[in-house]
Amino acid sequence: QVQLVESGGGLVQAGGSLRLSCAASGRAFANYPMGWFRQAPGKEREFVSAITWNTYYTDSVKGRFTISRDNAKNTVYLQMNSLKPEDTAVYYCAAGGKYSSGSYYPNYWGQGTQVTVSS
After folding, report:
1. Residues 47, 94 contacting (CB under 8 angstroms)
2. What is the 3-state secondary structure (H, E, C) of 30-48?
3. Which of 41, 50, 85, 113 is the most buried (most CB within 10 A)?
4. How many CB atoms lie within 10 A of CB 72?
5. End-to-end Cα separation, the chain, in angstroms
6. Other Cβ atoms within 10 Å of 105 Cβ, number
7. Burial annotation 13-39 (CB, 10 A radius, 16+ → b, else e)
8. Residues 17-32: tens digit of each pLDDT
């Protein structure tokens, strides 16, 4: 059974930083995409970033967020700098599936971790 467990969320002031981690268990994802989505209150879940052999970001986080992975630990990270109040959301880890033509279609989801950025 695949499990994705996120950690690292919390409350931070605007301009601050957080680092999210997502540890996967139940299968290895070294040869598959991993990534992050987020859902703000009253909004649909949206793609944030993905990593295959390349990295991909939604425009609103480019230059501020950095995705990375440690295949030995089956873990993906999201370093978030220069955080803004509009980054406030539940952040979901995703794994497996495929990244194609600018869209990520994961097979597995984490339970989510809250990120709140105060102004």
Report:
1. no
2. CCCCEEEEEECCCCCCEEE
3. 50
4. 7
5. 40
6. 11
7. eeeeebebbbbbeeeebeebbbbbbbe
8. 999 999 999 999 999 9
